[in-house]
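Appendix B. One record, verbatim.
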Amino acid sequence: MVMDIRTHYLGLELAHPVVASASPLTADMEGILRVADAGASAIVMASVFEEDIRAQELAEAALWETGENSHPEAAGYFPVMPHASPLDGRLAVLRSASERAGVPIIASLNGCTPAGWLRFAKDMEQAGASAIELNFWHIPTNPDETGAQVEERCIQILRDVRAQVKVPVSVKLSPFFSSLGNMVKRLSENGADGIVLFNSFYEPGLRSLTDSAEVDFIPSSAYELRLPLMWAALLSEHCQADLAISGGVHSGTDVAKCLLAGGDIAMVTSVLLQQGPSYISTLLEELREWMSVQKLGSVKEFKGRMAARGTATQAEDFLRTQYRHILSAHFADIAG
């Protein structure tokens, strides 16, 4: 059977739904080309963190200023040279990748100030990004800050960036908003072309025998896929923005689940870090095998088949019932 596994995301037609998300594999030109050659339908470049760029800029400015007044008479002999920004290197990779990779390159931006979000987004667009992903990683540590204020700040960042760039813009969200469905709805209404469910929060731990923080990295597991799947199923029928599912995609069957829930693409990171970029071909082979067993000829035939329908109350009742069933079945197993 000839299968049509094409999909659309952020206005881009993609050969299939497996997209490589931001990771160390997509930080430089060599890695991006490896992932592209392995068959990713699109690639999200490793995130640009505003703090990193600012710190490098300050360090380099200090080096330029050191000793500049030691020989003031020499200043008239040499022209003032513009200082290159540390961001320029990342933009050069983005520019080259956009020209050479053969698939859409999505720039990922993790900002921390209004000026940073705007400046870097505009630079990324000019460097050739097919789209820009705004990674809203924020912990509201001020107990006097309300949930409404947190949400409004995110909405305003999106509005400001949307007014500055013409390429599609997606938002990568955490699942920790008090009313996630409403937040996604508002983001979509304020210009988000896509929503990524969800970004990963890597919290520092506590070392038991010292007073230092424990910093480590634990790849996602397939079980973590349940949360974004649930929200994709709840939102896909009520959200104008495209949906990307991220976190816990480890097999071709997982990719199929993302589509069944109403997602447009499945983003992969951990499995590529563990198995290598070539594992993309395994994911696609497993997806085709699953479709063959189900006698499906295209993604369109089953995309959104498991999306939640009916009223919000019915969806809430369904989820509460499943929650109770999971607990009761587990306790029955223990008692047995």
